[in-house]
Amino acid sequence: MKLFVTGAATTKFGELWNASPRGLARHAVFEALKDAETLPSSVEALFVGNMLSGMLGGQEHLGAFFAEELGLTVPAFKVEGACASGGLALHNAVNSLLSGQYTTVAVLGIEKMTDHKPEDVATALMGAGSEEERSAGATFPGLYAILARVHMREFGTTEEDLAAVAVKNHLHASLNPNAQFHNTLTVEQVMKSSRIADPLKLLDCSPISDGAAAVILSIHKTQRGVELSASAVATDTLGLAQRKDLTQLAATRDASQKAYAIAGVTEADIDVAEVHDCFTIAEVLAMEDLGFFPKGKAAAAIAQGKTTVGNGKHVVVNPSGGLKGCGHPVGATGVKQIVELVDQLRGIAGKRQVSGARVGLAHNVGGSGATAVIHILKK
Amino acid sequence: MKLFVTGAATTKFGELWNASPRGLARHAVFEALKDAETLPSSVEALFVGNMLSGMLGGQEHLGAFFAEELGLTVPAFKVEGACASGGLALHNAVNSLLSGQYTTVAVLGIEKMTDHKPEDVATALMGAGSEEERSAGATFPGLYAILARVHMREFGTTEEDLAAVAVKNHLHASLNPNAQFHNTLTVEQVMKSSRIADPLKLLDCSPISDGAAAVILSIHKTQRGVELSASAVATDTLGLAQRKDLTQLAATRDASQKAYAIAGVTEADIDVAEVHDCFTIAEVLAMEDLGFFPKGKAAAAIAQGKTTVGNGKHVVVNPSGGLKGCGHPVGATGVKQIVELVDQLRGIAGKRQVSGARVGLAHNVGGSGATAVIHILKK
C-alpha cells in the first residue's frame, strides 16, 4: 500500500511570546488541511508528538487535548520519545494507515518552550537521557561535546569544521521565512561565541524554540501529494557509557539502512535531507551514519559547501536551516522536517529550493542517539 | 490478519516501596516472555504506556529507557493518554502488527506512584484534565462526583448502589493474589468511609498504586495464544463542561460499538469484562455505555450480584478486582486488563475463574471520559 503526505504546514518557529500551544496547533493543522484541500471531517485519527508539556506545563493527555481544540472527535494519541517525539508520532501514524484502521490521519508536532525558565527547560530536557548521566550533572551540550571530542581525536575534525555546519544552516535559515534565525554567521563568529561545553560553543547549539508543524497522511493519492516511501525506527542505549563506539550513532545507521531497504533506494539517491543537527557535531555524525560520506570525511565536505543549497551535485542538507537555524521546538522538529521535504519535492521551497529534488530523507533523533527515526519521501 | 496475545504477566499491584520502575518492568516483560515461551530476541518493537514518569520523576523517553533496561535494541515508543495510556499503547502496537512493520511486539504498562507525595500525585493526575477544570481547582473525584450526582438525579441511583461496586470488586480482588487489596468490604463500610467529593467516599475511589503489566502480541498463533479480535479508540471533549450529556461517557459507547463491529460480536457475547472503575460511578456508567444494561438499570443489577463471579449467566465484570480492588497504577491498568482476560479465557484464573468464558472485553478510560479504548479477546 502506498501512503501520501497530502498536506503540510508549519507555524513560524522562534520565541513566540504571544502564541499559545492551542493557537500554534490550530495554525499548523488547519493550514495543513487547507494545503491538502480537505476538510477536518476527513481526519480519522490524530497523532501528537510532544515532549515537555507534562513536565513543564502540567498538561498531559495531549491527544484528547488537541483533538478537542481542533474540533476533531477522533482517536487521538500522544507519542513521546524526547526530541524524536515528532518522528515517532509520524511512524505510529504510518503504521495506523498501513494497518487499515484509518485512511487519513493528521500528525501534529508541537512544543512551547519559552513560557518556562531556560534552566527549567534544560532540566526537563535531561528527562530524555539516562538517570546516571542526569544525576551526574551531565547536560545535552556536555554529552554531545564528548561525541565531538571523540570525533576530533579519531578523525582530526576541527572546531572550525563544526562551526561550518552552523554557518551553512544559518545561511539556509536566512532563506526560510518560517525560520527562527535570519542572520547569517561566519566561522569566526561561531568560534568567538561563548563556550557552553568545550569544544561546543553557543553557536554550535540549536536554540530553545516555540513552534508547531502538521502533516496530513492518507492512503488516497492526490495531485499534490508526495509519496511517503519508508518509515523506520532504531534504538540504542539511553546513555553514552553503555555504547561500544562513540564515533557514530548506531541507531541512525540502523534506522537508515532499514529505511533505504523499504524505499528501495540507496543513500546516493537522496537529493535533499533534513537531519537532526541539535549540535553541529550531530550533523557531522548524521552525514556519516546515513552513508552520505565515509566516516571521518563529512566535516571537511560540509565546510567545502558540498551540502549547501546550490552545490549542484551532492545531497543538500537542512535547507530549512535545520534545528540550528530554523529552530528546535522539540516535539515539532520531526514533523517540520517532513514539511520542508514536501515543499522541496513539490518544488515550492523558494530561494532555498534544491533544484530537481526527487527523493528526500528526514532524520530525527531522541536524546544523545537512543532513538533514531528515518522517513523517506519521493516525488 | 489475526493477532494473538501469546504471553501475559503482571507484577503484584500495591504500595511497592521496595520496587523500582526498572525492576517492575523487568518482572512483567520477562514473565510475559516466559509465558509466551519465546525469547527476548523475538521482540521486534516495544510499546510503553505510562503517564506520570516525566511529571513526577523527570524521566521521559521511556521507550528507549525500558528497551535498554530489558536488553531490547528494537524500536521503542511511549504512548500517553492519561489513565488510558496502557490501552493506547496496545492500540498502537496492534496497528504496528497489522501494518506489517513488525511480527511480534511487547507492550509494557507501568506506573510507580508511591515514590511521590500523594498531593503531588493528585496534582499531576489533573494533567489528564482540562486547563479550565484544573485551574478552577477541580479534582478527578470531584469530576466523577458530578457524573454521580447527575446519574442519581436522572435514574434514582443511590449511594448504596455505588457502594455495591466497591463491595463486588474487593470480593474479586480477595481472590486475586496480585491485587492491591485482599480485604472484603460491606456496603456499610463504604457508606461510613470519609467523604472525598460528595457523594463519592474514600471507598468509592480507586487507590494510588505501583505496578507493571506486559503482554506479547504476535501475528503467529501459538497453542496458548488468545486471539485479539478488535482494538478501537474514541475521543470526547477533555472537560465535562463541553459535553451535551453527563449521563454517559460517549467515548465508551463509540469505541465499544466500533469494537463490536470489528470483532463481529454483540455485547450479549461478552462473558467477562475488565472495565475502568476509577470510581464506583465509572463502573455503573461503563455497564450502560458498553450496552450490558439499559441506561439507569446497571446500578441495581450490580447490587443484585448480576456481574459478580459465580453469577452463572450474565457478564462478569472486573474479576481481577478492577481499579478499585486490584489497584490502579495508571499506565499499567489498560495492559493489566488484558492480562486478566487472557487468564480468564485460558481458564487459569483460579478462584476468580469465570466458568466457560470465551469472549472478553477490556475498557480503559483516560481522564473523565475524553479517551476510551476497547479491546476484545476471543478464546
Task: Describe the protein in words.
2 copies of one chain form a homodimer. Chain A is an alpha/beta fold and 379 residues long. Chain A has a domain at 3-118 and 208-218: Thiolase/Chalcone synthase (Peroxisomal Thiolase, Chain A, domain 1, 3-Layer(aba) Sandwich). The first copy, chain A, has helices at 21-35, 53-57, 62-70, 85-98, 118-125, 131-135, 140-155, 159-173, 187-192, 250-263, 280-289, 298-303, 322-326, 330-346, and strands spanning 3-10, 46-49, 76-80, 104-112, 195-197, 200-201, 210-218, 226-235, 272-274, 316-317, 359-366, 371-378. At the A-B interface, helix 3, strand 3, helix 4 and strand 8 of A face helix 3, strand 3, helix 4 and strand 8 of B. Strand 3 (76-80) of chain A pairs antiparallel with strand 3 of chain B, so a sheet runs across the interface.
Bin the strand percentage of chain A: 15-25%
Name the CATH superfamily classification of the domain at 3-118 and 208-218 in chain A. Thiolase/Chalcone synthase
- How do the helices and strands follow one another from N- to C-terminus of chain A? EHEHHEHEHHHHHEEEEHEHHEHHEE
Helix and strand composition category of chain A? alpha/beta
Global mean pLDDT of chain A? 97
Oligomeric assembly: homodimer
Please name the two chains that share the biggest interface, counting residues whose Cβ lies under 8 Å from a Cβ on the partner chain: A-B, 59 and 59 residues
At the fold tier of CATH, the topology name of the domain at 3-118 and 208-218 in chain A is Peroxisomal Thiolase, Chain A, domain 1
Distance between the first and last residues' Cα of chain A: 16 Å
> What radius of gyration of chain A results from the CA coordinates?
19 Å
**Strand arrangement in the largest pleated sheet of chain A:** 3-2-4-7-1-8-12-11-9-10
Question: Can you identify the CATH class of the domain at 3-118 and 208-218 in chain A?
Answer: Alpha Beta
Largest sheet of chain A: 10 strands, mixed
Q: Judging from the principal axes of the Cα atoms, what is the shape of chain A?
A: globular
Counting DSSP E segments of at least 2 residues, the number of strands of chain A comes to 12
Low-confidence segments of chain A: none
Q: Mind telling me which CATH architecture of the domain at 3-118 and 208-218 in chain A this is?
A: 3-Layer(aba) Sandwich
Helix content of chain A: 25-40%
